[in-house]
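Could someone model coenzyme A with this protein?
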Amino acid sequence: MTATKLIHEKPSIWKRSRGWIRIGEDPTNLAELDKSCFKKAWREESFSKLMNYPWFRAWTWHAEATSKALAFLIIEDQSDLFSILRVGVMPEYQRKGIGREMMDFLIQLARNEQVPKILLEVHEFNLAAQHLYFASGFCQIHLKKGYYHDPPGNALVLTKAIS
Ligand SMILES: CC(C)(COP(=O)(O)OP(=O)(O)OC[C@H]1O[C@@H](n2cnc3c(N)ncnc32)[C@H](O)[C@@H]1OP(=O)(O)O)[C@@H](O)C(=O)NCCC(=O)NCCS
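Reply:
Sure, complex below.
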């Protein structure tokens, strides 16, 4: 590989304070994380299919000591907008700042790639996620009534402008 090519390649692994963030390329791994974090998990086949879409981007957070994946983040990359589809931290590792680190990572990535906005939907009852998003600087722009069915509820639409 030439030096020129190396300079222009985007990184696939980012060092964090207590671990690493990597591009998530393994559908089995993503499905396992999803199952630990969500009551209604996505199937492995769904991850395999999603990964074929050009807009699909995923990352996993790995502990430095064990290198085990403890968290994941999936977005739809629409070039002028990052839409968060899924973010989860394994239950026994929650409230340790990993979710915040994933959000900070995405915000920095949006800045680096000159993406002006990040968008997401969150269940009105999911207070932990709402706290994380508000703490990361998101604000509510819309309410989608009756958007969720299991459990039933409204969706808060949140956005963050990247400057
Ligand atoms: C939402 C989620 C990703 C947060 O990850 P996390 O690693 O626990 O979050 P952090 O430790 O980085 O917390 C960041 C901030 O979020 C808020 N927060 C996180 N969990 C919280 C909880 N259970 N209750 C209240 N606030 C919470 C706090 O403001 C926290 O900052 P603080 O600890 O300084 O007060 C995690 O709870 C999770 O995976 N939940 C299940 C899946 C899910 O609901 N995903 C989001 C919908 S797609």
